[in-house]
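Figure 2 data, in text form.
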Amino acid sequence: MDHRKLSNIAKTLEIVKTDMIYAIQMIDDEKRHPVIMQQISQIHSKLIRVEQMILEDFTENDLLRIR
């Protein structure tokens, strides 16, 4: 896997981790329920993108090995 891609994945995972911590902290504040749901939805979307990036990178590497 390309070092730059790994670096980008690591940065993205760090952002997702930060967002998750923020969302968990907001759960204690019931007044912000709609904000919590929006944040959780955004985190879920980011996790899906990270998963796709990782799978695409592995697929590219597998194809290179096959060639």
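Caption note: The two ends are 15 Å apart (CA to CA).
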